[in-house]
Amino acid sequence: MANYTAADIKELRAKTGAGMLDVKKALDETDGDQTKAAEVLRVKGQKGVTKREGRSASNGLVVAKVEPGVGTLIEINCETDFVAKGDPFVALAQQVLEQAATVKATDAEQLLSSDLDGKTVQEVIDEANATIGEKIVLKRVARLEGETVVSYLHKTSPDLPAQIGVLVSVKGGDEQVARDVAMHVAAFSPTVLSRDEIDPETVANERRVAEATAKEEGKPEQAMPKIIEGRVNAYFKDNALLDQPFAKDPKKSVAKVAEEAGASVTGFARFKVGV
């Protein structure tokens, strides 16, 4: 029988993020030698990287870094919540985030191909994939510049890392209004900053649907224009950040709250793991 204890299993799992069965097999194979077992896990894991390509990676985390005038946000995915909250995966995410900020990455492809200590970021992720034994994917990257940039990370479960990440940039005002808006974005998930960014064809389609629905409901013809505009405006409030009723004061729009604070919201990014 191999010479190791339950504490040894726990320690090696914490170091590598690998599953319990894989850790036990590696310790059996190396007679309880932690260093050799970690190497075995890495070698065997590397062989399985290709096999794992078809698996679903819907867990993971978001991390953000803010420096004066610029913020970076990344989402990195794995297969299970066990790995998502493990130290190796969290450390990998932080390493990739720092690289994203360093190379000023604006998308995943650019970041994955960048050089990190003699390896591409993709190679670094593949090595983690091998050691941990799960599919790991850098899903997306955002970089936001502005006069003032803030981040907000939200945990949807207290046992897991942040699952929702937001960057917001504002001009004028102070950081507090930016933070309030960032928390609003996390909760209300707007898709665009302003209604002007919504595709005109999409707006036209919403107008057609609103008209058809109103006719189906038997609304009076003279009331049609007002009803249609009301429903189109409701669509804007669902999607455009500046039109949305502010979370802390729904009687005012986000744009109005920012204006009263002497600020204007100039941009945002929002990631939610698995969405």
UniProtKB/TrEMBL annotation:
Residues 71-274 form the Translation elongation factor EFTs/EF1B dimerisation domain. It is found in: Cytoplasm. It holds the Pfam family EF_TS. The keyword Zinc does not apply. Gene3D superfamilies: 1.10.286.20, DNA helicase RuvA subunit, C-terminal domain, Elongation factor Ts, dimerisation domain. Its main location: cytoplasm. The keyword Chaperone does not apply. One of its GO terms (cellular component) is cytoplasm. Keywords: Cytoplasm, Elongation factor, Protein biosynthesis. InterPro entries: EF-Ts_dimer_sf, Transl_elong_EFTs/EF1B, Transl_elong_EFTs/EF1B_dimer, Transl_elong_Ts_CS, UBA-like_sf. One of its GO terms (molecular function) is translation elongation factor activity. CDD domains: UBA_EF-Ts. Residues 80-83 are annotated as: Involved in Mg(2+) ion dislocation from EF-Tu. Associates with the EF-Tu.GDP complex and induces the exchange of GDP to GTP. It remains bound to the aminoacyl-tRNA.EF-Tu.GTP complex up to the GTP hydrolysis stage on the ribosome. NCBIfam families: tsf. PANTHER family: ELONGATION FACTOR TS, ELONGATION FACTOR TS, MITOCHONDRIAL. Belongs to the EF-Ts family. This is Elongation factor Ts. It comes from Leekyejoonella antrihumi.
